[in-house]
From TrEMBL:
InterPro entries cross-referenced by the UniProt entry: GGT-like_enzyme (IPR052896), GGT_lsub (IPR043138), Ntn_hydrolases_N (IPR029055)
Enzyme class per UniProt: transferase
Keyword flag Cell membrane: no
Gene3D superfamilies to which the protein is assigned, alphabetical: 1.10.246.130
EC number(s) recorded for this UniProt protein: 2.3.2.2
Organism of this sequence: Streptomyces daliensis
Keyword set includes Transferase: yes
GO molecular function: leukotriene C4 gamma-glutamyl transferase activity
Keywords annotated in UniProt: Acyltransferase, Transferase
Protein name: Gamma-glutamyltransferase
A Pfam family: G_glu_transpept
């Protein structure tokens, strides 16, 4: 589903004449990052989990997500909130957002703060 969402995040007008331009690549990469953030929060749950797949792939939701793409690259993991639901992130991802390095999480590096 994440690849389908990447496609849904592409804006209209991203045609062959823009192929290979910095703007084209930026749009593809930033859209992929948004889809991967949603993947971390929403896709891949156990069978029977309440995944809002219809919303995640909907035109209005992806238009809202597409509006997050600005002229500069984002360094943040920015999962969306389909149907107003708070994103669910693994403990590892939440710890990284709080400033923990991969080394610190493994007990081999300095602690944040």
């Amino acid at each position: 589903p994440a690849f389908l969402q990447q496609l849904a995040l592409l804006p209209d007008g991203l045609g062959p004449e823009t192929y290979g331009t910095p703007e084209y690549v930026h749009t593809l990469v930033e859209g992929a990052k948004l889809a991967m953030a949603d993947r971390e929060a929403w896709y891949g749950d156990a069978p029977g989990a309440d995944v809002p797949l219809k919303t995640l792939l909907s035109t209005p939701y992806n238009a809202e997500r597409r509006a997050l793409v600005g002229p500069d690259a984002s360094w943040e993991l920015r999962p969306g909130s389909p149907d107003g639901r708070a994103p669910r992130l693994a403990a590892y991802v939440r710890a990284q957002q709080d400033g923990w390095s991969p080394e610190a999480l493994a007990g081999a590096g300095p602690l944040p703060g």
